[in-house]
Amino acid sequence: MYRMKFSGCLLLLLPTVVLAQTPAATLDATVRSQIDKYCLGCHNQDDYAGGLDLGALLNENVVAHGETWEKAIRKLRAGMMPPPGKPRPAAKQYAELTVNLERKIDSHSTANPGSVMLHRLNRTEYANAIRDLLALNIDATTLLPADTSARGFDNIAGSLTISPTLLEAYATAAARVARMATGYWTSPTEMTYFAAADASQNQRLERLPLGTRGGFAVDHNFPADGNYTFQMQNFGVGTFNPGQQLELSIDGERKQLFDFTGVGLNVGMGGDLDGTLEVTVPVKAGSHLVGATFIDTGYRPHLNMVKEYARKSIENEPLPQLQNDPAVGFLKIVGPFEPKRSTDTPSLRKIYTCHPANSDAEPSCAREILGKLARQAWRRPVTADDIAVLMDFYAKGRKSGRFEDGIEVALRRLLVDPEFLVRVEKEPADLPAGKSYAISDIELASRLSFFLWSSLPDEELIALAAQKKLNDPATLRKQVKRMLEDPRSEALVTNFAQQWLYLRNLPSTSPDGIYYPNWDDELRKGFQRETELLFESIVRENRPVTDLLDADYTFVNERLAKHYGMPNIYGSHFRRVKLGPEFDYRRGLLGQGSFLSVTFTENFRISPVKRGVWVLENILGTPPPEPPPNVPALEETKDTDNPIRTLRDQMVQHRQNEPCATCHRLMDGIGFALMNFDADGSWRTLEGHPRKGDGQSYPIDTRVELWDGTAVEGPVQLRNNLLKYSPQFTRFVVEKLMTYGLGRGVEFYDMPQLRAIVAGAEKEQYRFAALVTGIVESPAFRMRTKQEGKQ
Amino acid sequence: MKLITKKHLPRRSLLRAAGIGIAMPLLDAMIPAFATQAQARTLTAPKRFVGVWHPQGAAPGYWSPVQSGKDFEFSYITKPMEPLRDRIVLITGLDVPEAFSTEAEPGGNHARGAVFLSGARPRRNAVAPFLGVTIDQLIAQEFGRDTILSSIQLGVEDAGNYGNCNWGYSCAYTNSVSWTSPVSPLPTEINPRVAFERLFGDGASQEERKRGRELNASILDSVTTKIPAFKRELGSSDQVKLDTYLENVRELERRIQIAMTSSVAEPDQEVPFGIPRSKDVHFKLMFDLIALAFEADITRSATMMLGRDLSGFTYPESGGTGAWHGTSHHGDKPSNIANYAKMNRYHVSVVANFLKKLRDIPEGDGNILDHMLMYMGSNMGNSHRHAHEKVPVILAGGIDGTYQGNRHFVYPDNTERTANLLLTILHLFGIQRNSIGESTRTLAIA
Fold this sequence. Notes:
The structure holds 2 protein chains of 2 kinds.
Chain A: H1 29-38, H2 66-77, H3 91-108, E1 119-120, H4 123-134, H5 164-182, E2 189-194, E3 212-222, E4 225-234, E5 239-240, E6 245-250, E7 253-259, E8 276-283, E9 286-295, E10 323-324, E11 328-340, H6 346-351, H7 362-377, H8 384-399, H9 403-416, H10 418-421, E12 422-423, E13 436-438, H11 441-452, H12 459-466, H13 473-485, H14 491-500, H15 521-540, H16 547-550, E14 553-556, H17 558-564, E15 575-578, H18 593-598, E16 600-601, E17 605-606, H19 608-618, H20 647-655, H21 660-673, E18 686-688, E19 697-699, E20 703-705, E21 711-713, H22 714-723, H23 726-742, H24 751-760, H25 768-777, H26 779-782, E22 783-785
Parallel strand pairs in A: 5-10
Antiparallel strand pairs in A: 1-12, 2-11, 3-9, 4-8, 4-11, 6-7, 6-9, 13-22, 14-15, 16-17, 18-19, 20-21
Helix pairs in contact in A: 2-3, 5-9, 7-8, 7-9, 8-9, 11-12, 13-25, 14-15, 19-21, 23-24, 24-25
Chain B: H1 11-23, H2 35-40, E1 48-53, E2 69-70, E3 88-95, H3 115-118, H4 135-143, E4 152-155, H5 172-175, E5 179-181, E6 184-185, H6 192-200, H7 206-231, H8 236-262, H9 279-295, E7 301-305, H10 324-328, H11 334-359, E8 362-363, E9 366-367, E10 372-377, E11 391-396, E12 407-410, E13 416-417, H12 418-428
Parallel strand pairs in B: 1-7, 1-10, 3-12, 3-13, 4-7
Antiparallel strand pairs in B: 2-12, 3-11, 5-6, 8-9, 10-11
Helix pairs in contact in B: 6-9, 7-8, 9-11
């Protein structure tokens, strides 16, 4: 039974928690003797392994040394200690020891909800907030600089710094967003979409018509009704198959068909107008799908046999005699010209909830509009003073223009307000520092929406919070369920999972084209989509999070299926496929191209070490220590008696050096077991020399001893061994979700709560919603510790 | 969506209007009356820096003057600088060892431009570039605190992410010669209109820009009024953070105030939205913008990239033939080298025209050229051999009015590196760092 102490008044808020009747907060005798027997051989005063003397702590209060014991628990839970080769307790005793230690800490800990610092909206949250507030899709990457990540996420309050440059960017963004949303955009804008350097454009893109090939499909936001110029340029130089035609379409409707003859034959892309195709057409304001794609004429065989997926990059250039299909290098959209005030866009419909019939009616309508906007943007009920400030700015705009100009100026003011740009939580003045208190319903609404949607709370949440009903346990659970089912919870995939699983590193992952000729941008995007869809299925279908490790299905399209060697999958859309015994090795994250390729190193090879580290960090939650300085490079040995043939040979030699061996034993086993997966995620059983490329192949040896001493062979057995640590994995997922959801690092004092959350989800088989609900109901999420320091 | 407001002329109108650009560089008509500010700064003229980088070295045998020391005879390529002799220092014989590839980090000879102002070795990494801070940024940090922009980065060739970055090396090394930190390259702006907006404000007309600034000022003012009440109920560390926020708002307000008072006379001519067709016009426009920014004291540190590595541009104005990169591979043939020298001389003449313009703008007890330093150079010498040694170096300007020109320093082969020149420049600006990039000491050129 999990127990926690609370300061008296708070018990009412969390009736399930029982005040602990504490026996001594020291370790039980059985635990002490086990630690003595199995741990103190190294973790003693003299050997001081890992900078740790457990002997000194044996008779101490466990809670007072919580930080150390939590590290120990983590190692035990992941099966990392004692290290391979040293005696371990039998499995049953090992588990009992671990649980006993945890219970001791949990039953004597006082809940410390911690406090989250003032929290600036990061770039993703800003874009989502604008989307939800104004029904406007913006590409915030062109307005705001990137945010710094910490603890694996870019929404950690402490790292979201503020600088004059950043505020200037927010001010400029506010001006542009306000103008775009209110519908009177007069100055031309410019946006250029570039093809990735390793794009291959010989496949149809999803959302573009059948019978087309390559190019771009972009959702472009047109700021006003008006004429827009579309410019396209070819990618690279070379000689092209004749008779190519390029189509420009908007929302699927053809606007122009260009003959591609001769374009870009020798001039490249350097000069103005060199090889540019251009057309100007009228477009209505709002977001439209713009397609620039070739009519597919590949009915006859042509010389793309050199590579199955012809990358349109510099590597193709030195082959002028080779005929290629042309590809689009970039699409530039410039406009509006001759702009008109927009009359009907999603933004206008969202903003103008009233339309003043005459100038007398304008102020009251402005008050209504601004009141609604401020309520959502500032995430709280607004006061007369709030409206008065905004109406001052409305008046400024109205004076020199019309009604809409007044709204625009007031909106601009609203978006620069700190109550929009930062999230804050108030502290009761009469409470001493270090004491905990429940956050307000209004603050809870924001915590919820930024956790599950990475955006503003909606009216339902704000209304419930304003009536102080959100803290009601049943209401809260109902809201979590509603929010998870809402499409906005896609942020858990695009924001949380992308960062946790390193998917954001995929765009910059680029195995060398010489060694990995099948790698291209479509494959990269496919890897990303596959993992996103797997994670999304866990969220949407409310599955146990451990399915991430061994789901018997995955998601592929034709491109990815071919790469994985799966037959009979056609077309560019992704679909769920069952993984039978022949594709057992593809089950779970460890069989997916995203993980297998983000762990690539730039040295033209896969990195067993990086893969091992990834698993230790992101599955087991036990990152290895940093490598020591002056690590010797892998040997290019001249030792002919013991020749290096494979990467493994090379690394084994490297590992013979202490101190490298201690840590590498943990990581390399995992990496070597996965050696059947090449850096591009493809399956193989033979391997070439790591450097020479002499055409010789050698069988891959995936027999290893893992971090816990278990002997396995190959990816499937590795995965099955990892599944033994599902409880640790589940905890780790919760730790990641809490880090992300709270916007602060999860510390040792959070672990008792974390264990309670996981325990609470047991009866629901650790399904996603149960874990999220547990987090939301935890003290860390609903409460706050008053900060130390001066008032 | 790049929400950039630009007074745009559709391309056809632009082409029709191109005649204006050629007959009279557009910004010539924009010279504002900055007299009041110039007067205000009579005695404390600020120090300024311009780094002008070009790819692909200089024609061997045509760059170095024959004599060293004072009163040397200008070489063929440096001849356009002669009218500015009193403010010109030439240096022969410096190497750029950081730009040489090594066994561990092979290749990338055309991905080493960013060494120019950093003196640091570009790490061979395609996705996570790592270099070093550049001297224009160190100077901006020191001298740009009270200006609207701390620095500006201009160029004339687009930084595409495809095409011509060498294998294994991030395009960042090719795209930017200005880095605020080892991992933060600053983007190079090639569009004169966007550069203009950064300098003078956002908006289609002077009137609109003025309104925009006034509005921003009143919005920020309203925000500062609100913050004290807003922060009252917050925790102590949040209050500290909100104080930072407030300071930043005030800093921004201050810069807007600077902008509102210093841009009293803005250029009244349109700056083209598109990229000029003629590189000659483009160069002039970008250099005019730097001159304008210096004159209005909008910024005190600038970089200009005359091209990108592997540039395929042609310069008919030079009298030579061929595209830049191809021509630079002269095969050590005398006739080809002579042809390449024409292009080099042309580029020097473009920069000389810029310097002359600065010399003609009075400031304090002299002119702007007296109170700045320009460092023009390349990371290659003989580009046919991709030799990152014996690179061309032209320094121009008096820094604080006292730096002496009319000198040609010659270093024996393989004895000195450009990183040491960078350290020397920092010291000349009063920035007493111990090193920059892989520098080892200062040069005796002060």
